[in-house]
Design a protein that fits this description.
- This protein is of the alpha/beta class.
- It has two domains: 231 residues, Rossmann fold, CATH 3.40.50.2000; 158 residues, Rossmann fold (3-Layer(aba) Sandwich), CATH 3.40.50.
- It has 15 helices and twelve strands.
- The strands form two sheets. A seven-stranded parallel beta sheet has the order 3-2-1-4-5-6-7, with helices on both faces.
- Helix 5 crosses helix 6.
- It is globular.
- The two termini are 15 Å apart.
- About 2% of the residues have low confidence.
Length: 404
């Protein structure tokens, strides 16, 4: 069976599918991943077939307004639909669709007769338990949370509307709106497996059948891979350091963030590892090391704490390593995950990105390193994560589809 995984977004939206893809390949399936060209090396290093999707949804030339963001997102989604059609035409027997690609993949499944399954990294279905992840972590009450969740889905439908029309015309399908197709999928209990831990988000009791929280899919790294020599040397030269990184976030903020990071570390009396990332963090000194991309699974267990942007993948990686965190959410679903980590007791209260100062970061670092309750909470969550088998749950769902 040829499985096509379709994912679009930043590195954090793609990397988990390398681990899932490798697990499915080891189970005997032929696996391809359709995503942006920038991630082709990631897929090929994992031994997975790469298929290209359009990638660039960024607005250039300053801070965009809401209308410009909507126009840009709509244009990107339209290109994504055409790219996804091309990727599917290259051959597939089953579609595994991410949060971003599912509203387009449903139409491809209808046109081709291919079975499909959702493999999402964020909780998207409305629930009374929490508000939509894109609105942060502040609860609106059960009725308010559900209403906000339904509104968020309608806004997403609007973004996909033109792309859906264009894609259905290409596929020779009769017109159907994005919202009508979404409701159709809900009515038939289209299966969605959510790749995060029940330690952070237990399955809401008011979700419809077919929605399951299965545990994380961990980014693939070679079993023989080791940390670079300079990182090993730094780790061995003193007390456990603190990691500071913002993933692909905060482009153009590198100088400001680097200065804040170094001042905060030195005020708190801690050594630090800065990951350059999208922001371009950089600093040097006996007490600070700047690194590029390294597997979090290898580095995080050896740290005193992790300062991060609260992306879903980085949040999970820190928990898996039993590393307490200071979160500095930037945008999108990051405030949601930051709030979840704080509620779990594995992180301090979030510091909003625009409110970040050296003093606030130093105070939070002092708290998270010295108060052992944070480490105990992270360790408890790590034990919970170790009991989950996200890839195994997907494999079982695929086999059930095959039996059906």
């Amino acid at each position: 069976m040829k499985i096509l995984i379709a994912a679009a977004g930043s590195r954090g939206d793609v990397a988990p599918y390398t681990g899932l893809g490798v697990a499915l390949r080891r189970a005997g399936y032929d696996v391809a991943v359709a995503t942006a060209d920038a991630f082709a090396p990631l897929l090929r290093e994992a031994g997975l077939e790469f298929r290209s999707l359009p990638a660039d949804a960024r607005v250039r030339g300053g801070a965009p307004g809401k209308r410009e963001l909507m126009r840009t997102a709509g244009a990107f989604i339209s290109e994504l639909g055409q790219g996804l059609a091309d990727a599917t035409a290259a051959g597939a027997d089953l579609l595994l669709l991410s949060t971003t690609t599912a509203p387009l993949g449903w139409h491809l499944a209808e046109a081709t007769g291919l079975p499909s399954l959702g493999v999402y990294l964020q909780p998207t279905a409305p629930t009374g338990d929490f508000p939509p992840v894109v609105t942060g972590s502040r609860s609106l009450g059960r009725l308010g949370n559900r209403a906000a969740g339904r509104f968020a889905l309608r806004m997403a439908d609007r973004v996909y509307e033109d792309a859906v029309g264009k894609l259905r015309r290409r596929l020779g399908l009769p017109p159907v709106s994005a919202s009508a197709m979404r409701r159709r999928q809900e009515e038939v209990n289209w299966p969605v497996l959510y790749g995060f831990s029940t330690a952070l988000v237990p399955r809401p009791s008011d979700w419809r059948p077919g929605l399951e929280v299965v545990g994380n899919w961990w980014p693939h790294h070679d079993s023989v891979e080791r940390l670079p020599v300079e990182v090993e040397d730094f780790l061995g030269a003193g007390p456990r350091p603190v990691f500071i990184g913002f993933g692909s976030m905060a482009a153009g903020e590198g100088e400001r963030l680097s200065e804040i990071a170094v001042r905060a570390l030195r005020r708190a009396g801690l050594r630090g590892i800065l990951q350059a990332g999208g922001a371009g963090l950089a600093a040097a000194g006996d007490d600070v090391l700047t690194i590029g991309a390294v597997p979090h699974a290898l580095l995080f267990p050896r740290l005193a704490a992790v300062v991060h942007h609260a992306g879903a993948g980085t949040s999970a990686a820190a928990l898996r390593a039993a590393a307490p965190a200071v979160t500095v959410p930037v945008t999108a679903d990051q405030p949601f995950w930051a709030g979840r980590l704080a509620a779990l007791g594995a992180a301090t209260e979030p510091i909003p990105f625009r409110a970040l100062t050296a003093d606030r970061l130093a105070d939070a670092l002092d708290q998270v390193v010295k108060e052992r309750a944070f480490t105990r909470a992270a360790a408890s969550a790590a034990r919970h994560l170790a009991t989950e088998d996200g890839a195994g749950r997907v494999l079982k769902a695929i086999r059930r589809l095959g039996d059906g």
